[in-house]
Predict the 3D structure of the following.
Amino acid sequence: MFVERTHYYAKPGMTDEVRKTRARASAVRVALGLPSGSIFHKVDAEEDGPDVTWQCEFETLEQHEQDLAARAESPEFEAVRAHMRTCYARFERHFQREVS
C-alpha cells in the first residue's frame, strides 16, 4: 500500500479557511471519481506541526499516478489549489510505501 500525505501550515488566522478549502478539494476529488481521502486538523494549536493534514491510500503506484493525472487535468481542482496557495505559509507533500 502507498500513502500520499499533504501538510498545510496555515497563515495566521487562516486555519479554518485551510480546513474548509481542503474539504472543497476532497469534494472535487469525489466528483472526479477519486477517493476523498481523510482530513485531519491539529487539536492543540500550541503543538508544532501542520495545522491541517490530508491523506489518501493507494493499492498501487499506477492508481496514484492516475490520481495525480486526474487532478492535474481538472480545472476545478486547480482552482481549489490556487485558492489554497493564498491560505498557507508552508505546504509539504509526502508519498510513502507501507513496509510492514
